Amino acid sequence: MSTLQTVVHWFRLDLRLHDNLALRNAINEAENRKHYLKPIYVIEPDIKNKIGANRLRFLLQSLQDLDVNLRKINSRLFIVKGRAVDLLPELFEKWNVKFLTLQVDIDAELVKQDEIIEKFCEEKDIFVVKRMQHTVYDFNSVIKKNNGGIPLTYQKFLSLVADTQVKDTIEIAKQISDDCKSTDFELEEYKVPSLEEVGINESELLECKYPGGETEGLKRLNIYMNKKQWVCNFEKPNSSPNSIEPSTTVLSPYISHGCLSAKLFYHKLKQVENGMKHTLPPVSLMGQLMWREFYYVAGAGTKNFDKMVGNTVCTQIPWGKNEVHLKAWAEGKTGYPFVDAIMRQLKQEGWIHHLARHMVACFLTRGDLWISWEEGAKVFEDYLLDYDWSLNAGNWMWLSASAFFYKYYRVYSPVAFGKKTDKEGLYIRKYVPELKKYPSEFIYEPWKAPKSVQRTAGCVVGEDYPNRIVDHDKVHKVNIQKMNAAYKVNKEKKALKRKR
Ligand SMILES: Cc1cc2nc3c(=O)[nH]c(=O)nc-3n(C[C@H](O)[C@H](O)[C@H](O)COP(=O)(O)OP(=O)(O)OC[C@H]3O[C@@H](n4cnc5c(N)ncnc54)[C@H](O)[C@@H]3O)c2cc1C
Predict the structure, then answer these.
(1) How deeply is 465 buried, as exposed, middle or buried, from its count of CB atoms within 10 A (0-12, 13-18, 19+)?
(2) For a disulfide at 294, which of 124, 157, 385, 450, Cβ 3.0-4.6 Å?
């Protein structure tokens, strides 16, 4: 057992050195008191079952990069393995921990876990410092400013933060003293595991398009911030959901894992916009970052935000169950080429454009399949590199017209929507290669192609590519009626509640 005391920084969704105040607090404490410093990351034993393979690869790459960056300042990352609530109390005793720093997260599971750890720390006199550093604004302050409730519209949110000064970000570059190195500093057992070591066969994954880590995140941010005119002209609705290369920044996986600070992104955007004519929220790039802030405030202030039942902002809709349709949707086998291309891109690469997410989320829920947004959110959690508890739930509620957006009668067509930006169907040809040789005329509706055309293209519908699982033209009209009825019931229930 070590006699010296230890300061721990517990990394979770803050996998970076820049703009990491909690980490700097830990370093200062260890330096000033000549204590050991242990920056840790906890890997749960069943991580392979909790995180999809692509995201797990992104996470391990990010941890590897974090270790490299910590070593540059004479420290390292200590990977510890086990369930945090069991493992940390044990380790804190063994290491004689007296000071713990971490960032505030809002994912309901993390909140529960933190309550247990903080209770233990209180009992053992371990001083805990928590910093809010995953968002630009302090979401609790925004809620307080709104008299304790969450802003239900984006414009309301913007008005609440309009005159908030956003603090500067900090850098951590100073060398840490050798005195802070614990006796087990060199131990191999704390190294970042490989994919194989966590049970993933890397050869089964496709090429890595978006490598994880702070270094990559900062590089990507700089590339985009150097394209000043592009940033100033950015209008989200005019970006393409089906371009072969992304038409937006793909900073989301880096921001979600905390490899890139949202606050740094904010300040860089401000610098670019300064003195230039630029687009405005909600469509500008700054507007996109503000959507993130909006959903964070909503998620932080709403109980059961990731569920329909017990969630006060969520309209209760009697969704149906259909395992066969859900599976077909998740695997990109609905028989609608645009929907299938999007779901296959998601599964292969871990990222899809925001409007592509609109398309498939609407299709699964109110548009076509009438399956709960909670089911879709689970599939996204598995596949997305940028999975984020509040953004995923918030956007799914939006798309299913369960919260924040109420024009349920505006449904995306799986045929017409994609054509607007990709008439020839190049995107479909890439991700649904069975249809590669189809004439453009039929690429969005292969079932309409005469059998002879299907045979010449080498793909017969119903044999080489699935038949449509529903008929959009019919089913979306029925679903609009069901939404209408659900809205009525909810309205009546609310009126009754008000009367009581
Ligand atoms: C059903 C559904 C589920 C989603 N789930 C997630 C999720 O789990 N994690 C996630 O990060 N985003 C999610 N989004 C939001 C959005 O699609 C992605 O943030 C965006 O497409 C990421 O690409 P980008 O980095 O190129 O975005 P850009 O357009 O370049 O925007 C820059 C940044 O702004 C933020 N942002 C952009 N759009 C939104 C939005 N609508 N809501 C919140 N933040 C936004 C992201 O941090 C993004 O990186 C979801 C959207 C839908 C419709």
Answers:
(1) buried
(2) 157
